[in-house]
Amino acid sequence: MAPRTKKVVRKTRRDQTEISRCIKYLMFGFNILFWILGFMIAAIGIYAWIEKDTFDNFGRLTMGGTLFFDPALLFVLVGIFMFCIGFTGCVGSLRENTCLLLFFSFALAVIFFIQLAFGTLVFIYREKVKNEGEKQLMIMIQSYRDDPDLQNMIDWIQRDWLHCCGVNNYRNWESNVYFNCSSKIVGSVEACGVPASCCRVEYFHNNKQCGYGTLEPSAATHMIYTEGCLPKASHWFERHILPVAIVVAVLAVLQILGICFAQNLRNDILAQKAKWSWHTHPMMNYYRHQ
Predict the structure, then answer these.
(1) What domain range is 184 assigned to?
(2) What subcellular locations does the record give (predicted)?
(3) Is 100 within the bounds of a domain?
(4) Residue 224 belongs to domain with CATH number
């Protein structure tokens, strides 16, 4: 009688653990970059905010000022939010913490549905959104000289991005006290004018005062942009609808993948814990000795 040969069973890693290293370290790597980026954005915003007198900004906030439109504050809020999300995803995946992974996936799901609801409401109530946006942009024009960061952002939009002036047209700058014609009484050189960022490129480099006096009834306007930024922005989005749609779709897919990966990793961790609990259960020792 031939001797029995013992069958060799090769154990795979999946027999030992339920946790996928690929998903674990993919989530860790992506979220640590997200974490660092959020920290850097928040640090830039905090530095810029402190440079503009923090306590004065808090006063404007409590008095219902225009702090909401402060680019520095926007950097701070976005940076802190990204930092928190990146922290939970990074530490949760590395330490295999199911609570942090649950918070990470829940936060991404909330963000995704808020964006979806926001986009739907904007599409349904686009006229109301346009009117409200116009009001807020007029407030930003009125606060042009009050906030250096806001001023730089408006200048960038008018001069470098959209090549426009004002909200609907260049005469919207009459609502700013520094550019209103009534400021001639106090001797303002900018009275009845527009900011230098409204000047056309070919005139701006040779004459930084090309916007002065352009709000006069008989003034020539060939040296400045006369079309408003709101219609120009609408035209820009119409021309670039495909790239914008691709970016939105990519962001949505990344969020969905983040939710799926976090839940998959969390389920793997729970399954592994259940396996460990069963192997250490007193009944398991009983069956082993039978």
Answers:
(1) 143-237
(2) Membrane
(3) no
(4) 1.10.1450.10
| 123: helix, strand or coil | helix
Torsion of CA 152, 157, 160, 165, to 10 degrees: -110
Q: For residue 153, what are its two tokens?
A: 């952002």
pLDDT in tens, 186-200: 878 888 999 999 999
Does residue 232 lie within any of the structural domains? yes
In a domain, 25, yes or no: no
Give the bridge partners for 224, in sequence order. Answer: 199
Angstrom distance (rounded) from CA 55 to CA 52 = 9
Residue pLDDT, tens place only, 188-238: 888 899 999 999 988 877 677 888 889 988 888 889 999 999 999 999 999
Positive or negative, the CA dihedral 138, 142, 148, 154 is: positive
SS3 212: coil
The DSSP secondary-structure symbol of 159 reads: I
**C-alpha span between 205 and 198 (Å, rounded):** 12
pTM of this prediction? 0.75
H helix runs in the chain, sequence order: 13-16, 21-51, 54-62, 71-94, 98-124, 126-142, 148-155, 201-204, 229-239, 241-279, 282-288
Q: Report yes or no on 92 lying in a domain.
A: no
d(CA 195, CA 185): 19
Query: Rounded CA gap, 108 and 149, in Å?
Result: 30
* Structural domain count of the chain: 1
Contact 194, 173 (CB under 8 A): yes
Angle at 75 between CA 142 and CA 110, to 5 degrees: 110
**What is the average pLDDT across 118-141?**
90
Q: How many residues does the chain have?
A: 290
The answer to whether 221 touches 198, Cβ cutoff 8 Å, is no
CA distance 172 to 104: 44
